[in-house]
Amino acid sequence: MPTDSLFKPLPLAGRPETVSVTLNGSALQVPVGTSVAAGLLSAGVKRFRNSPVSGEPRAPFCMMGVCFECLLDIDGAPNRQSCLVELKEGMVIRTQDGMRDLLVGLDESAQNGRNQHGV
């Protein structure tokens, strides 16, 4: 049963300064000086990823790096906790759908289980 977001930005005196980012190819203006998660929430984004188990939409919950519900692909780096990343002009952000790839960035021998730690 979906509910409305409990995130409500506080009214600011005047218009806040913004930066331009893209989310899934669409341009957004988001407040400067916030985390990626807070900026996207303030721009009305409600789905950051899908649950790999149920497929249900997920969005930030704790906003302090504990819950991992805010994972996004930020500037080509997957599995980034968007609540811990500061917004910067020109960021390219993509929602993360399905199962995370935990071996991104490892060399081929590590992916085949032959790294020095035997993992």
Poorly predicted regions: 109-119
Helix and strand pattern: EEHEEEEEH
What would you report as the Rg, rounded to the nearest angstrom? Answer: 16 Å
CATH topology of one domain: Ubiquitin-like (UB roll)
Q: What would you give as the CATH superfamily of one domain? A: 2Fe-2S iron-sulphur cluster binding domain, sarcosine oxidase, alpha subunit, N-terminal domain
Share in helix: under 10%
Q: For this structure, what is the CATH class of one domain?
A: Alpha Beta
Anisotropy-based shape? globular
Quote the beta fraction: 15-25%
Report strand order across the widest sheet: 2-1-7-5-6
Mean pLDDT: 81
* Computed structural class: mainly beta
Q: How many beta-strand elements? A: 7
**How far apart, in Å, are the first and last alpha carbons?**
40 Å
Largest sheet: 5 strands, mixed
Total of helices: 2
- In the CATH hierarchy, the architecture of one domain is Roll
Task: Give a structural overview.
The chain is mainly beta and 119 residues long. It has a domain of 78 residues: Ubiquitin-like (UB roll), CATH 3.10.20.440. 9% of the residues lie in helices and 24% in strands. It contains two helices and seven strands; from the N terminus they run E-E-H-E-E-E-E-E-H. The protein has a five-stranded mixed beta sheet, with helices on one face. The longest helix has 7 residues. 22% of the residues are buried. The C terminus is likely disordered.
